[in-house]
Amino acid sequence: MSKFERSRRLLEKKERMLAIESLSRFANLDVGREKRKGLPEVILAEGKFAREVAKISQAMVRRTGRAIISRCDAAQVRSIRAVLGKGSRLEYFPQSRIVIVKSKGYKPRRSGGRVGVLTAGTSDMPVAEEAEVIAREMGCEIRSFNDVGVAGIHRLFEPVRDLLKWGSDVILVVAGREGALPTVVAGIVDVPVIGVPTSRSYGFGEKGLAALAAMLQSCSLGMAVVNIDGGVGAGAVAAMIANRVGEYRMRRVSSGNGE
After folding, report:
1. Contact predicate 143/117, CB 8 Å
2. 32: buried, middle or exposed (CB in 10 Å: 19+, 13-18, 0-12)?
3. What does pTM read for this prediction?
4. How would you classify residue 241: left for phi > 0, otherwise alpha for psi between -120 and 50, otherwise beta?
C-alpha cells in the first residue's frame, strides 16, 4: 500500500469517527461516537416529540445499524415502530423504558467483559435494567441479583460470592433510601464498584438525595458514584472498565496462557 493510500484511508477513518447526521433543525447525531470512543450514541426520548424520536432513531439505524433510545413513553414507542425499515427489529424493555432498534444485518460486538449488578430493592430494578441494557449493547456479559439490600444483609453474601467466582470485572450497586449497599459491597470485594443512587425514597433526603449523599460520603475505597437514576451513565462506565479487562482476558486465552 502506498503512502498516499494509507493517508487517504486514515483520513476516511477519522471522518467516519467524527461523522454527524443533521436532521432538519432539531438534531445533530454523533453517529461516529462508537467508533471514536467505544460508546454508542444514546437517544434520550424524554422531552421530545414522538415524531422527532422516530426520525432520530430511523437515521441512527440507517447510519450505524442500531439505535438505542432511553426513557420512551408509549406514544414514542408506537412512532418508532411505525418507521421501522424492512427487516429491522425492535426490542422494548418496559421496566426501564429503553428501546433498541437494529437493522437486519447488524452484528453485535462481544468484548468478553463481565458486569455484575446488585439492587437493594425491587423498586431499584428499572434503573438497574437501564444500566444492564447499555452494558450489554456495549458487548458485556451481565449477571444480576435483586433485592439484596442492607435491611436483610444476609441476602447479600451468596450473590457477592457468585459474582466474584464468576469473575465480574466491575459491580454496579443500585440503591435508594439511605444508599448504604454500595458502601458495604465496596468494603468486601476486590473489584471496582459503581454506586447508582435511585430516586426511590421519600421523607428526609427524598428523591435520591440521601442515597447520593451517602454514596459520595462513603469511607469504602474503590467506589465511584454516578448521578441519581443514572442507569445509562453507570452502564457505560461499567462497560468501558469491563471491556478493557475482557479484551485482555481474551488475548491471554487466545495466546494459550489461560484465563
Report:
1. yes
2. buried
3. 0.85
4. alpha
101: nearest Cα among 54, 140, 170? 54
Q: Give every CB contact of residue 36 below 8 A, 6+ residues apart in sequence.
A: 17, 18
Burial bucket for residue 20 (CB in 10 Å: 0-12, 13-18, 19+): exposed
CA distance 192 to 155: 21
As a whole number of angstroms, the distance between CA 9 and CA 1 comes to 10
CB-based contacts of 60, cutoff 8 Å, min separation 6: 21, 29, 31, 41, 43, 66, 67, 101
Domains and CATH numbers, the chain: 14-102 (no CATH), 114-249 (3.40.50.1970)
pLDDT tens-place string over residues 132-162: 999 999 999 999 999 999 999 999 999 999 9
* Length, in residues, of the chain: 259
Q: How far is CA 97 from CA 52, 120, 131, 231, 249, in A?
A: 17, 20, 12, 12, 33
| Mean pLDDT over each residue of the chain, to the nearest integer | 88
Nearest to 246 by CA among 165, 173, 132, 168: 168
CB 122 within 8 A of CB 145: no
CA distance 113 to 249: 9
Asked if 228 contacts 199 with a C-beta cutoff of 8 angstroms, the reply is yes
